[in-house]
Amino acid sequence: MDKKFSAKIFIDGGEPEETKEAKKLLGFLDGQTTNPTLIAKNLAASVSSAKLTQDEALGEYKRIAGEISKIIPHGSVSIQVFANGKTESEEMLSQARERTKWIPNASIKFPCNAEGLKAASVACKEMPINITLVFTQSQAAAVYEATLGAKHPVFISPFVGRLDDRGENGMDVVSNMIKMYQSGDKHVEVLTASVRNIAHILYALYLKSNIVTVPFKVFRQWADKNFMLPAENFVYNPGNLKAVPFRKDIMLGKPWQEYDLFHDLTDIGIEKFSADWNSLVQSS
Ligand code: E4P
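^ Those are the sequences you sent over. The predicted structure of the assembly is below.
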């Protein structure tokens, strides 16, 4: 992590050329997040009419992850398991054990539903992990509890932009989980994701989110502003977004299965990742 920033800076994308360019612009890069949608977008151009077999598509994901890994060998590269709403934890775990062998610096992403956290509770003893599609403080408490005793880095990815998109203040969720985690052992690193603009980056830095992942388009805008930092008296302006208040009644300390894991955007996100990936693949 560069001393100038209070967070690790990741790029969010599926295109190694962007990784190279972002690293050049900033002078370093702490990591990259990928997901099935981003990888499918990269591959869509080359496989437009002729679809890939599942094995070929997976091979392409592995190749892309490998290229990214070579560009940032000391960074962390998030690789996601493929899941739909019905995928069981054993299946996710078996995918994770395979994907973690792809590159030396992989962090395996699991969705924030019950099966994903069940898999993650085992995986965190074996490999770095990243819990994705997080939208609530209650989910964040569950992630913390499910990964207690982890032997590798654990990231949690609150998706701020997707909450903003529907009129709720996504950055409140980042703020709330950081506040709740203050009473914990700090084993979970908050990775601000689904970033849409420079204000998201600045507030994430101000809040001391451990990591912020930035899509290339916003990365360039930030570069144009010389990678500006939040002022000491920075105030985030949520505009008309509806506040998501901190919940005092949601505290760490219970078995993870007792927290409410439901959020409709988690379920919608899982199905969308799955659909985007399947659009590349021949149906069997
Ligand atoms: C990062 O890990 C996420 O996959 C990403 O930030 C999702 O962002 P989106 O809401 O722009 O798809």
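Residues 12, 33, 35, 132, 157, 159, 161-162, 193-194, 213 surround erythose-4-phosphate (CB under 6 Å). The mean pLDDT is 96.

Shout if you want it in another format.
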